[in-house]
Design brief:
By secondary structure, this protein is of the alpha/beta class. It has one domain (3-222): Vaccinia Virus protein VP39 (Rossmann fold), CATH 3.40.50. Helix content is 32%, strand content 22%. The chain is globular, with a radius of gyration of 17 Å. The N and C termini lie far apart (40 Å). The model has no long low-confidence stretch (mean pLDDT 93). This is Methyltransferase type 11.
Length: 225
């Protein structure tokens, strides 16, 4: 049974909490800025889970294909939003069932941590990306206070937390034209909700002085024309 099948029915409960909504808002803002999505572009959401990112991409005007290895997660994704400009498929991101150069952009958000062969998965994402396209990879950062709290617990017991250097080295092997990244979520996980008004200050100071300590690292690699 795929790892996430057991978590499917309550996976999105986190996003319904004030803390979860705030985290997702910050993550999506960062992801959207790096992606520079153009309406009508074909985007692959690799490791789409219950479709949180897929739905956001579709709402922003993309034609989205979400792929995941977990049937239970995909069942939730289809229930929450399929049809129209989102299609969900069951499959392994380490062996994508698409021809070369199929997508304008590929997004893999907090999924690479759970892949047994991340280098092979990245090579597959790169293969299906069109020349001139963008690969966005968001990973959990091993240096953050969030990682220290999560490691060894629940599904995170199976996760590999990345560093900036480690993920950049993996992406450089793809021979991209350019690699850039941003960090997001600098406020501590224990921050009480009555101090959420200070989150913009945490984000500003974090990006300025502690960039590599973000909870989530989002990388963009551009494929040469």
């Amino acid at each position: 049974m795929p790892l996430f099948d057991a978590y499917a029915t309550h996976y999105e409960d986190w996003y319904a909490t004030p803390r979860g909504r705030l985290v997702w808002e910050l993550e999506w803002r960062c992801l959207q800025k790096l992606l520079s999505l153009r309406p009508g572009e074909k985007v692959l959401d690799a490791g789409c889970g219950t479709g949180v990112v897929s739905r956001a991409l579709a709402a922003a005007g993309a034609e989205v294909t979400g792929i995941d290895i977990s049937p239970a997660m995909l069942a939730v994704a289809r229930e929450k939003g399929a049809g129209g400009n989102i299609v969900y498929l069951e499959g392994d991101m380490s062996s994508l069932p698409f021809p070369d150069a199929s997508f304008d952009a590929v997004v893999c958000f907090t999924a690479l941590e759970f892949v047994a062969e991340p280098e092979r998965a990245l090579e597959e994402m790169w293969r299906v990306l069109k020349p001139g396209g963008r690969l966005l990879v968001g990973v959990l950062n091993h240096r953050s206070s969030w990682a220290r709290r999560r490691k060894g617990k629940g599904v995170f017991a199976h996760a590999h937390f990345y560093s900036v250097r480690e993920l950049e080295q993996l992406l450089r092997k793809l021979n991209p034209c350019r690699v850039k990244w941003q960090g997001v979520i600098y406020f501590p996980p224990e921050l009480p909700s009555w101090l959420f008004s200070l989150v913009p200050l945490f984000e500003f100071l974090g990006r300025l002085f502690f960039k590599s300590s973000a909870a989530v690292l989002i990388f963009r690699a551009d494929k040469c024309l």
